[in-house]
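Page 42, continued from yesterday. The earlier attempt failed because a stray header line got pasted into the input along with the sequence. Redoing it now with the clean sequence only.
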Amino acid sequence: MKLEEQFEDARRRLLACRTLPEAFQERGFSLEHLQSPEFGLHDLGLDRHGNGVIAQRDLEGRLLGLKLRLVGAGAARYVERPGPNGNLPWLPPGAREMSAEGQQGVLCIEGELNAMLSFVALRGSDWGVVGLGSAFGPLPWSWLARLGLPVVMFLDRGRAGDKSFGAWQMEAEALRLPLFRAGALLGDWDACEYAAHCGFEALAPRWLQVLRASGAGQWTR
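This time it went through. Structure tokens are written below.
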């Protein structure tokens, strides 16, 4: 089965669900978030084993791979299909046409599901959202450079995130992009954990607080 057909099958399976699949439980999502066109999460599906499926696309929307969130896999939660492809970043719907007009900046979040949930929460705000496949990126630098907006990184606290942020500071400086690092949402929780514990409705106002505190909102061209 071709890659596009595999994802279409996974998407149909998710749309047919009547209860929230295990792969997306305790992550702050509702079934409506996953299924309704209103929320724009068209890149999520469910394979026949109940694993979550994330479509990995380029800026043109071409499907380059699938990333599975494995159910009951312990620490090894993710695997790429048909093989490793570098943990491509997740770009939001309409990324290709997005411009800097009316936007404060771009929030880059470690973890595709964290980014997708935050994208839904921040709809209608003046912040774009990008998902990183890992603490090592990669970042969509050419797209970010075209926008020329402040970039705020939200990374897991630890050596990997610290090391990556240091390297990205140099790359951003070369591109003349203002780069900031966001503080914590609450403790060491990621966006999905925050929404699962505090409620989805609490995520957007908390993000806006964190973004203001980052200093990115005070940046001027």
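Notes: Residues 3-81 form a domain with the DNA primase DNAg catalytic core, N-terminal domain fold (CATH 3.90.980.10).
Reminder to self: strip header lines before submitting.
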